[in-house]
Specification:
Blueprint: H1 2-13, H2 20-27, H3 31-43, E1 47-51, E2 54-57
Antiparallel strand pairs: 1-2
């Protein structure tokens, strides 16, 4: 689950919402993996979407 931790840490450091594509580019994690990880984070209510297609860490 190292990619999971990379994506989660990236979300924790964010100052503003980002798209999944940006996360993949910035972290170097494959886009499909980012999508799967984000799905898990959404189910666990760790991330929220303040606007369509943009996500941030739930405060």
């Amino acid at each position: 689950m190292e990619n999971y931790d990379v994506v989660l840490d990236y979300f924790k450091k964010l100052k503003e919402p980002v798209s999944a594509g940006t996360i993949a580019e910035e972290t170097g994690v494959d886009r499909k993996s980012v999508d799967k990880i984000m799905k898990k984070l959404k189910e666990d209510e760790v991330i929220v979407s303040p606007k369509r297609c943009y996500w941030e860490y739930k405060k």
